[in-house]
Structure to design on (1209 residues):
């Protein structure tokens, strides 16, 4: 029988089975060692947690609630506490503190129980748990513990609570913390079931293999044990993947690894270069210390075939920079509280007259005022220094990636210094010494932190780390002690702050010494693998983003309103000078910055790739082709010049990102990692691993000349002497190389157009389109409620009703939300056709030409059938007309000519680039956005001025718009998401919800409805006939037959599968073999369809390109196979979804991509009769890192739970 466990133990198991094993050993009194003592930080956090609980208790008492404190009412006897808890629940106390529970499975003490008006066995009330947590953010362990208390409450009050609450730190309290139990219950039950099996099957003889990770209270113990065992994880730079490969090859310790000969011949998996490099690192760590007690280190020698990380020529104005931050457990904010820099004075001295290094600091003790001021003051100080001629080529040196990432975050959070930081990042002013050190030496330490590296500095640099604050953790503890002390914010008057500042100053000094050490060592030995002598990237011109300036201007003019700290629900009531409510005004300001922020993300990713320490860092990047091998080249002559076309081959890419980009835009520029050469791609085939790059003669000649000059200058010898010893590539295209994408920003023209609009709005706020104001306000309208009432009346045509609505009401925003199979495209086409017959001038747009074209063709067919002559145009910037559209009587025209053809009763389709033109302002009566769930709100803003009214058609619960950057005020949402305020179902005062699915069997509709549409999507009664007549039964793993209709979850066992699964492919192949030749029948188009299943009636969906390729290879033409993105709008008798990844940890891009509700919705809802999900058993019980992940797992656990119920019937 399973022992009784606690909520804490279950949550520990959810994070780490390794930790759960040691916990079980301790519970059985078999653990004979001692756990390491708690750190000072851990002790302080525990104390703060106790204070946090007492704070809430005090609040309830002050509110006048009747409070039962079980701790005070009963002594430590558990039985008495449990009975007293039940007694207090029956008496109906408002709040019960430290409530004790126990049943046959669990026991625990809930922080609080809160009385709610929900009938139960207790009476007209029941209780829900409240857990107090110091963290400002919800963690999955909090959810698990809360679910446990809901489970325990069920036994006492007879019902599960509907909700539970978390009282968080960070000043958040109960804000947005009312959690719906049903969102986590299926996941929790699966987790609890697995844990009970784990306990029952526990063996103290089967100690698990230890590995680094999140192990709760066992973390320090496991780390110390790994050190004692000399585990491979001790090798600096060792990753989980390589560690597992080595262990698989019986190499278990750092000693084994270092001493293994011919390692690349023994270890066949993985990148041999990476493994050899790690082995040299292991060998360095085992070397004895030097005579002066400094660690062993060995310089790597320069390899002319490779590109070491460049280090700029030193400049008298150079700076050495460091930051200190804290995640405040009470305020919940991440505060960058100290910016420190060392520098040379005007005379070029690094030390002042006292012999101290020149140092300046900027402090911040709050998030909203002092942090942005300190950041801005630091940035302005640097810019003022750069403005001096002798300092114009200065660089800012730091150690580690944190400083760059933090400054990116700060400029986004506070909307300050944006153009400056962008220029710093793009021009290479910020120089990270960490990758340079990693690329230049093997250090005999377990890591390359600056604390480890500085141990090797020779005595001549007079560097020694001293002081009470020795590391980042110490600084955090010291800062928290200062906060509690009441000492002054003035560093000169606070000993505690002075200690922290001295620590920061020491880090800046250490960075300076490291920089000097690298320069000196390179000067003494030119063969060291450090590249000095040129800037990282040529200094870029500082360009101010005019849209950001206008945005900031608009924000500045409402600063007095924002400073009043108006409550969020009152923002709609306050009007601004733009004649819109305050919330809309703020959103508009951030929409103006949308495209630039999105572009920045692309460029930041580019510079991160460019500055990667090694190719191994790029191996999982979807926009990188690593280890490409030269295959052939062909020379083609043109009228003016000629070019070589170089063909390279590579292993199949994991993701189709590059192929999608190339196919969509018809162009792609790639950069060679080894040489920084940029070339145009003329062919890309990721399935067959082939890329062709165009290398024009002019570029080739220029490149080779520059390369020769660079080598001659760098080594100060004749180039021929170098070439005698080395086979050096002078073309920039080595035989083996890595390519990565150079961003192409298509939004430049849009931003230019938007800038003109925004400048007009700045001059005259009345010029802001009413349609845009209405859109941003998100005001519901009683007229739309009336429209819904009309539609709900039997026999009323939806399309005709909506057309009538627009005919009678001008300047309207209306949404149509169409879940899968509800016929939204047909309704939209009929509505547009009707409005055109009324003489409406209509513009149609979407994210893609294909979506626009499909809708136009549907409209044309309806008009043709009605013998109604309406002019339909499609804007396309192509030399020749679109023959496919022309055949359908749809004329294609150049974008610049759109304004010339607008007339009453016309329909014109075009993307945002076509409909944002100034000459189209107010030219249309209605703008229709198809697939509005994928259209960014920012793009709609740009073209909103072309029409008086807007119709948003789509379903934000299917494939949706994805923004990469961090945007405030909902500016990063899609048009439909914004209009619906992120609700799952459109409110009846904002639009029409198409609530009947004509496609799916009602069993499928029911699951889709419950998971994604709040139970409001209904099945079509006639679709009950939809079924598969299996020619031969397929028996599921539990010996039951797969059903004839509905949703089936085929759970199978596999391990370590990431982007492809042979096991799932085999099962799917067997299912399809038995489907072929089976019969189907389903209701479609108003009549019953019958037939024999063939490839057209089977859709197979996989999340990853590699699994798609594996399935295609196995299945051939037995089914249509692709990713979810390709199948939106498609339908078939049977849909099969291969989840592929063995667990959440194995899933590239995480569970958030694999189980994203929108993708899962599309995958399940393609089926008319039967939807089959094939997935790993371990996936159902994956460890999760966020509440969103928990909800995602809950979805598939719920599907599996329903499936198991069906199979047991």
């Amino acid at each position: 029988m399973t022992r009784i466990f606690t909520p804490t133990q279950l949550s520990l198991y959810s994070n780490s089975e390794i930790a759960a094993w040691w916990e079980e050993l301790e519970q059985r009194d078999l653990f004979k060692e001692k756990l390491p003592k708690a750190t000072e930080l851990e002790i302080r956090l525990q104390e703060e947690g106790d204070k946090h609980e007492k704070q809430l208790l005090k609040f309830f008492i002050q509110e006048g609630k009747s409070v039962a404190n079980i701790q005070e009412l009963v002594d430590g006897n558990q039985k008495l506490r449990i009975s007293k808890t039940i007694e207090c629940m029956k008496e109906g106390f408002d709040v019960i503190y430290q409530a004790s529970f126990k049943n046959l499975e669990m026991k625990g003490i809930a922080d609080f129980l809160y009385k709610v008006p929900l009938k139960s066995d207790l009476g007209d009330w029941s209780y829900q748990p409240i857990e107090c947590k110091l963290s400002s953010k919800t963690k999955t362990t909090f959810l698990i513990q809360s679910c446990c208390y809901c489970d325990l409450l069920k036994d006492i009050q007879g019902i599960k609570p509907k909700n539970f609450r978390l009282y968080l730190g960070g000043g958040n309290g109960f804000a947005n913390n009312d959690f719906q139990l049903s969102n986590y219950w299926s996941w929790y039950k699966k987790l609890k079931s697995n844990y009970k099996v784990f306990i029952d099957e526990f063996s103290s003889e089967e100690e698990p293999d230890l590995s680094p990770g999140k192990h709760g209270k066992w973390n320090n113990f496991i780390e110390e044990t790994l050190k004692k065992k000399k585990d491979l994880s001790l090798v600096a730079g060792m990753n989980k993947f390589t560690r597992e490969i080595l262990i698989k090859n019986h190499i278990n310790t750092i000693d084994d690894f270092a001493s293994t000969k011919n390692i690349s011949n023994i270890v066949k998996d993985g990148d041999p270069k990476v493994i050899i490099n790690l082995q040299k690192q292991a060998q360095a760590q085992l070397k004895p210390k030097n005579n002066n007690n400094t660690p062993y280190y060995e310089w790597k020698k320069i390899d002319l075939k490779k590109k070491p990380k460049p280090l700029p020529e030193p400049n008298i104005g150079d700076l050495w920079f460091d930051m200190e931050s804290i995640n405040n457990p009470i305020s919940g904010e991440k505060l960058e509280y100290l910016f420190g820099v060392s520098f040379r004075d005007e005379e070029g001295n690094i030390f002042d007259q006292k012999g101290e290094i020149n140092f300046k600091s900027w402090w911040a003790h709050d998030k909203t005022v002092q942090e942005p001021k300190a950041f801005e003051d630091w940035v302005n100080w640097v810019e003022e220094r750069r403005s001096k001629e002798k300092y114009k080529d200065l660089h800012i040196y730091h150690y580690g990636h944190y400083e760059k990432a933090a400054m990116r975050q700060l400029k986004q959070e506070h909307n300050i210094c944006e153009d400056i930081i962008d220029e710093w990042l793009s021009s290479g002013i910020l120089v990270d010494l960490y990758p340079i050190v990693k690329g230049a030496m093997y250090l005999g330490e377990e890591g390359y932190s600056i604390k480890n590296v500085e141990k090797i500095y020779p005595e001549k640099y007079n560097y020694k780390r001293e002081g009470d604050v020795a590391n980042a953790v110490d600084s955090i503890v010291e800062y928290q002690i200062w906060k509690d002390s009441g000492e002054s914010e003035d560093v000169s008057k606070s000993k505690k702050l002075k200690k922290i500042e001295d620590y920061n100053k020491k880090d800046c000094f250490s960075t300076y010494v490291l920089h000097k050490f690298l320069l000196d060592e390179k000067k003494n030995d030119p063969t060291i693998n450090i590249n000095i002598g040129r800037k990282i990237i040529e200094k870029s011109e500082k360009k101010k983003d005019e849209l950001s300036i206008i945005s900031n201007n608009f924000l500045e003019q409402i600063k007095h309103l924002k400073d009043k700290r108006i409550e969020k629900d009152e923002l709609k009531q306050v009007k601004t000078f733009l004649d819109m409510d305050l919330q809309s005004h703020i959103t508009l300001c951030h929409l103006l910055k949308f495209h630039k922020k999105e572009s920045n993300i692309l460029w930041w990713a580019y510079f991160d790739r460019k500055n990667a320490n090694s190719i191994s860092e790029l191996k999982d990047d979807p926009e990188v082709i690593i280890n490409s091998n030269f295959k052939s080249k062909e020379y083609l002559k043109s009228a003016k010049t000629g070019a070589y076309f170089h063909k390279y081959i590579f292993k199949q890419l994991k993701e189709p990102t590059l192929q999608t980009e190339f196919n969509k835009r018809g162009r792609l520029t790639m950069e060679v990692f080894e040489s920084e050469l940029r070339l145009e791609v003329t062919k890309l085939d990721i399935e067959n691993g082939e890329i062709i790059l165009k290398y024009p003669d002019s570029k080739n000649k220029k490149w080779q000349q520059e390369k020769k000059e660079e080598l001659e200058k760098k080594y100060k010898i004749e180039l021929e002497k170098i070439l005698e010893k080395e086979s050096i590539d002078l073309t920039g295209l080595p035989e083996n190389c890595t390519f990565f994408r150079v961003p192409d920003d298509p939004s430049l023209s849009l931003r230019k157009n938007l800038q003109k609009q925004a400048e007009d709005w700045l001059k005259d706020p009345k010029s802001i389109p009413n349609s845009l104001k209405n859109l941003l306000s998100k005001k519901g309208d009683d007229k739309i409620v009336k429209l819904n009432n009309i539609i709900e009346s039997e026999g009323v045509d939806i399309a005709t009703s909506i057309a009538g609505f627009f005919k009678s009401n001008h300047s309207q925003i209306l949404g149509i939300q169409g879940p899968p199979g509800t016929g939204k495209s047909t309704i939209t086409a009929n509505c547009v056709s009707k409005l055109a017959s009324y003489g409406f001038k209509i513009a149609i747009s979407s994210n893609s030409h294909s979506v626009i074209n499909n809708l136009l063709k549907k409209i044309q067919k309806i008009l043709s059938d009605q013998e109604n002559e309406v002019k339909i145009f499609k804007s396309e910037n192509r030399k020749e007309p679109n023959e496919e559209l022309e055949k359908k009587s749809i004329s294609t025209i150049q974008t610049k000519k759109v304004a010339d053809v607008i007339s009453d009763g016309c329909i014109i389709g075009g993307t945002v680039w076509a409909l944002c033109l100034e000459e189209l302002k107010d030219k249309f009566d209605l703008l229709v956005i198809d697939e509005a769930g994928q259209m960014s709100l920012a793009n709609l803003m740009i073209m909103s001025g072309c029409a008086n009214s807007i119709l948003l058609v789509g379903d934000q619960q299917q494939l949706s718009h994805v923004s990469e950057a961090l945007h405030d005020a909902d500016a990063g949402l899609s048009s439909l998401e914004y209009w619906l305020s992120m609700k799952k179902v459109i409110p009846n005062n904002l639009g029409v919800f198409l609530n009947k699915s004509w496609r799916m069997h009602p069993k499928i509709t029911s699951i889709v409805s419950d998971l994604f549409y709040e139970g409001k999507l209904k099945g079509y009664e006639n679709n009950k006939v939809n079924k598969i007549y299996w020619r031969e039964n397929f028996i599921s793993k539990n010996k039951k037959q797969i059903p004839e209709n509905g949703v089936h979850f085929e759970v199978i066992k596999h391990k370590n599968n990431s982007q492809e699964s042979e096991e799932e492919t085999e099962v799917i192949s067997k299912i399809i073999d038995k489907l072929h030749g089976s019969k189907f029948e389903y209701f479609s188009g108003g009549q019953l369809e019958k037939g024999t299943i063939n490839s057209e009636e089977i859709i197979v969906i996989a999340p990853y390109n590699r699994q798609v390729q594996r399935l295609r290879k196995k299945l051939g033409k037995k089914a249509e196979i692709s990713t979810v993105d390709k199948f939106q709008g498609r339908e078939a008798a049977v849909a099969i979804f291969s989840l592929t990844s063995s667990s959440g940890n194995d899933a590239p891009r995480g569970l958030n991509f694999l189980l994203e509700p929108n993708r899962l919705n599309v995958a399940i809802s393609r089926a008319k009769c039967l939807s089959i999900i094939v997935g790993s058993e371990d996936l159902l019980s994956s460890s999760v890192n966020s509440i969103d992940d928990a909800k995602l797992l809950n979805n598939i656990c719920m599907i599996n739970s329903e499936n198991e119920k069906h199979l047991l019937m």
